[in-house]
Structures are given as C-alpha cells and as structure tokens.
Amino acid sequence: MVVEDEPDILEILRFNLEREGYAVESFTRGDDALDAVRGDPPDLLLLDLMLPGVDGLEITRILKREPETARMPLIMLTARNEEIDRIVGLELGADDYLAKPFSPREVVLRVKAVLRRGEGTAETASVVRVGELKLDRPAHRLFVGGEEVTVTATEFRLMTVLMERAGRVQTREQLLSDVWKYAENVDSRTVDTHVRRLRKKLGREASRIETVIGLGYRLKA
User: Fold this and answer.
1) Are residues 12 and 102 in the same domain?
2) What confidence score (pLDDT) does residue 99 get?
3) Lower CB count within 10 Å: N or C terminus of the chain?
C-alpha cells in the first residue's frame, strides 16, 4: 500500500512497483489509508509523513500499537529537512525511511529488502536463547524472562543477528548489510535508533546490548 498526497509521486511509485510485479493499493489521505489498513493489512506500507486527514507519524503510532498491525513492515517517505520526523518515525517502529527526492529504483530496492528480511526469518526453524532472552524464529516472537515483547520485523531481525553472534562485536556497517540487506546511502543512525528502541523494550535485559565505542554493538553472552 502506498500513501502519498502528491499525485505525480504517487503515480511514479505505483508504476514502478507494479512493473516489478507488486499489487499496489494507493491512497492520498491518511485517514482513508488508516481505515483500509485496519480492514486488510498489506504486506508492506509505504507511507508519506505529510498527509491530509491523519499525518504519517500518527498513523505509525496507531498501527504499531495495535497487535494486528504491529509487525507490518512500514517504510516512511520524508523530506530531507525532516530529520527529527525520521528519528521519531524510527522510534515509533518504522522499518526504514526514504528521503525525498528519491529514485524509483531505490524505492523498489528498499521494498524488496524489507520484504526479504521478513521472508528470511520465517524460513529458519530454531530457537535462540541468551540469558533471559528467547528468540522463537519460526513463530517470529521474542521473550524476556518468559514474557513476550512486541517487536517490529526489523527489530526482530536485528535481535536475531545479535543473539546468533552473542559475544562478538557487530559493526554498524555489518548490521546495515546483514539486517537491512544493503549498505550504501544508509545513515548509520538508523542502527542506533533501532538499538535504542530495542533496549527500551528489553527491560532488565537492556544492558545485555553493549555499545562498543567507535565500532558498533555486541550482545553480552
């Protein structure tokens, strides 16, 4: 689903995604899109932040709070001068963002990468445990001390990589490549924002994700 109030941009996005074989549903108003998502959640939501009706940040906040849509992949579309909005959007649970102006090819690549991350977690059939953390990959669930923690698709993939490699330092570049599936033209602050959000959700196990100054992160084994 693409939600964009500028007709020219909306048409470009629709054309390029449909050319890659995706079925695209589009909306120009935030409130209409929100109703549609609640009725039938798409495989991925491509969401502009500045929208009539309900803005993109509020839509993200609502969808990530509701169990039926909390894990739905979401990519934000932002203007270059909206850095604070991008940070807030990632904090709220967005999986990725694209800054305008963007190339249609980059949009398609980002969509493929986010969808591929979800497919990759579904194919692995095992459970990973580190301390009080338990990662059930086939069920796509994360537990802390036996209690489930709601995470987004990207947060789940990030935890999978950190837990699988517990005790080893993962640079930001490695995480961008292995979790986000691409390494170019992506701000490393995306990694920092997702780690910060994960720590908030892990409660007493938050300190297990250690910051290695100048390099990246390590999950304490």
Assistant:
1) yes
2) 84
3) C
pTM, two decimal places: 0.61
For residue 78, the enclosing domain spans: 2-116
Residues 132 and 64 reside in one and the same domain: no
- Mean pLDDT of residues grouped by 10 in the chain (221 residues)? 94 94 94 93 93 93 88 85 74 85 89 75 63 88 92 91 90 87 66 93 94 92 83
Task: Count structural domains, the chain.
Answer: 2
CATH of the domain at 20: 3.40.50.2300
pLDDT for res 101: 84
What span, in angstroms and rounded, lies between the C-alpha atoms of 120 and 195?
A: 20
Do 147 and 198 sit in the same domain of this protein?
yes
State the pLDDT at residue 37: 94
